[in-house]
Design goal:
The structure is a homodimer. By secondary structure, chain A is α+β, with helices and mostly antiparallel strands. In chain A, about 40% of the residues lie in helices and about 20% in strands. Chain A is built from 9 helices and 10 strands. In chain A, the strands form 3 sheets. Chain A has a 4-stranded antiparallel sheet. In chain A, strand 9 and strand 10 form a beta hairpin. In chain A, helix 1 crosses helix 5, helix 6 crosses helix 9 and helix 7 packs across helix 8. The longest helix of chain A has 27 residues. Chain A is globular and about 55 Å long. The interface between A and B is large, with 47 and 48 residues. Chain A binds a DNA duplex through helix 8.
DNA sequence: CGTACGTTTGATCTTTCTCAATAATGGTGG
DNA sequence: CCACCATTATTGAGAAAGATCAAACGTACG
């Protein structure tokens, strides 16, 4: 197996986005004991109320965080992409406050919780990277609050499309002018506080305005600048340095 | 000055909610070098885009995190209460992604950023507490996303009132059946993704239903059980153990 | 005692939701 | 390969929650 295919390589790369790791720490990360699992779309990685025993890393595929309200409606809180350590949120807390469910068929790696805690508490560089990663997740969450609380439906959808574009491109998971949206319109609705019917209408109108075009889940941004404007989008909150990101203004 | 009045005592207490600190670490926290400042309501502690040099601890008074959208509307992201370390969010990131503004006249303590980083990276117990604190903040933020994205106005307001009640009581900052809301109806609107006009109407209707009563900012919850039900509120996401909290079902 | 800010109220308008039906699409077993 | 089924996407009509606009009323504070 080439190092390119190492299951934890995406995790390592993500950590290195945030902190320079000494060679020893890099080895340590790749040698983290773990168990690989392949799971179907819809499987739960974590359920609200669980006491997690592992920290799960997404090796391949997509997942999302969610909570369900008392009257049964769902809010999606974040979308996880390959390399994301899904349980950092819970690693230091006893009980999980939300669920994580797979969007697609996935390969995941389970790292024992105590090993992960130990690494974080003894390796300063890794601790720094993990803390920064957690803070970036929080920053994204803050932007979601703004998006849902203070932007109209058109801007919300444009904004979340921009976010996916930048995040996916920063991991080399998008093509030049577009990407495959890893979710249904109903899930998009649950992520933006709208209904699927309205999401559909907004998508169609963004298409009619020629900001995007699409073939089913395949989104092309035909006018990246205009899409960002429509979504009031600035990549600052993602804390990704510019050189890590591909999409220029073209 | 008695230890009760030590400016960092609220910070220490908050850390100890999340991790057992050895005596040495407790002393270390209280002896953190800091500069005290007294600031008026409306002052900024952090501005979006700043490169913070200090980690500011709220000694007395209230503050809130906010972001402003391109068209000028504001979203409040969190309310900070005494003992909160306002800049943990930014301590490990170079550029602040949101602003922090004072709700009331405040006393704050500025701790140099590098001192704080050093403490976190060398004292495992303090690191654990700080990480957990950050994760609890993220959990609260997730609940805010749910609140704004998937609950109607009445539930949103009821929910945020419940959250304040529990958080304030857990710090001994509330009286038996109520508390002083540290914000205007307009700020409440910016926290819940509503308009101040609508917040006013909802408050009046909660009053008419006898779930709360109020004299200006002084909120009394007359029927705590019903208020929780109306707000679909469960304290789990606050990660406060039950014995730390006062309000029982009475 | 007047000014600024916060609260309250009414009338009207818009965005988004709800309900309902239809059309694509992809996957499955035969 | 084809027919069938379950999801997902699309469209229309009507309803409702909440926004907007405008004005009046309180209250604290200099």
């Amino acid at each position: 197996m080439s190092s390119e295919e190492h299951p934890l390589i995406f995790l390592l790369r993500q950590l290195e986005l945030y902190a320079q790791l000494p060679e020893e720490d890099r080895r340590l990360v790749l040698q983290l004991p773990h168990r690989l699992r392949r799971l179907d779309a819809g499987s739960y990685l974590v359920r609200e109320g669980d006491r997690p025993t592992h920290c799960t890393v997404l090796v391949k595929g997509y997942a999302f965080r969610q909570k369900v309200t008392g009257n049964g409606s769902r809010q999606i809180l974040a979308v996880c992409i390959p390399g994301d350590a899904v349980d950092l949120q819970n690693m230091f807390l006893d009980v999980s406050d939300h669920s994580v469910q797979l969007l697609t068929q996935c390969t995941v790696a389970d790292v024992p919780r105590d090993v992960m805690q130990d690494v974080v508490l003894t390796r300063a560089a890794i601790a720094t990277a993990i803390i920064e990663l957690t803070l970036v997740d929080a920053s994204i969450l803050r932007e979601w609050v703004v998006n849902i609380g203070r932007r109209d439906a058109r801007a919300r959808i444009a904004h979340i499309l921009c976010e996916f574009a930048v995040r996916l491109e920063s991991r080399g998971l998008a093509s030049d002018h577009g990407f495959i949206l890893p979710m249904t319109q109903e899930q998009l609705a649950d992520a933006t506080g709208l209904t699927s019917v309205h999401v559909n209408r907004v998508l169609k109108s963004l298409e009619a305005e020629r900001l995007i075009s699409r073939q089913r889940r395949n989104i092309q941004y035909d006018d990246w600048r205009a899409l960002q404007d429509a979504g009031d989008f600035s990549r600052r909150y993602l804390h990704i340095s510019d050189e890590d990101v591909l999409p220029q203004d073209y």
